Amino acid sequence: xxxxxxxxxxxxxxxxxxxxxxxxxxxxxxxxxxxxxxxxxxxxxxxxxxxxxxxxxxxxxxxxxxxxxxxxxxxxxxxxxxxxxxxxxxxxxxxxxxxxxxxxxxxxxxxxxxxxxxxxxxxxxxxxxxxxxxxxxxxxxxxxxxxxxxxxxxxxxxxxxxxxxxxxxxxxxxxxxxxxxxxxxxxxxxxxxxxxxxxxxxxxxxxxxxxxxxxxxxxxxxxxxxxxxxxxxxxxxxxxxxxxxxxxxxxxxxxxxxxxxxxxxxxxxxxxxxxxxxxxxxxx
Length: 284
Known about the structure:
The protein is mainly alpha-helical. It has 10 helices and 7 strands.
């Protein structure tokens, strides 16, 4: 009797989805779905806080996504330049994978804040509304790596190990080897981070850009340990992958911002006091 294999996540049936005569790349489709979910959540938050509208969120999100895609692709190209130096035509081929989240966050956030200001939405309002919306988009978009069968982790025989087709099996590993599904780890981490940020904002609003700083630190923490599991080729510095150093910078930067602005909420609360409502500030 043959030994039963441990349960594992199967490899996807393909890299795309066909709807009649239309073939959609799953990678791009999931990024688009993530962006739509983020704009929806951001719009709800702007309206709930009376700092903007859903139309504002759609405009900010559209510009932010475009800027984020450009920034993410440029970050990937720069950090993996050896793969593109002799094939410049591959640089715009985003649908084949290859987006560096740190670059996307930096450029996308900057463009989104700029667009918000042109529509009269305060910077702090944009960042606060976007803080949980961005990890929601990331949680959905990460499943594109599953369809592309890329960016998985070290070999493992855990029940949730990931199966990889022979065509996508990395050099040096036997056919049938299963790997850590790092796309799943990061997706779940981002989904949990989204929930945490929503709870924090509901129970004890941080004010200003502090919720966004908490997102940056939280994402950096998750990305650091997930990145450490991955086995795809990457530049290393002092024994750590380049993206791990970027994740550490995000953790430190987010925590430092939270530390130096720790009195911001108290100041904002005091500023809410008027001649007839001094007790209101004292009760917050």
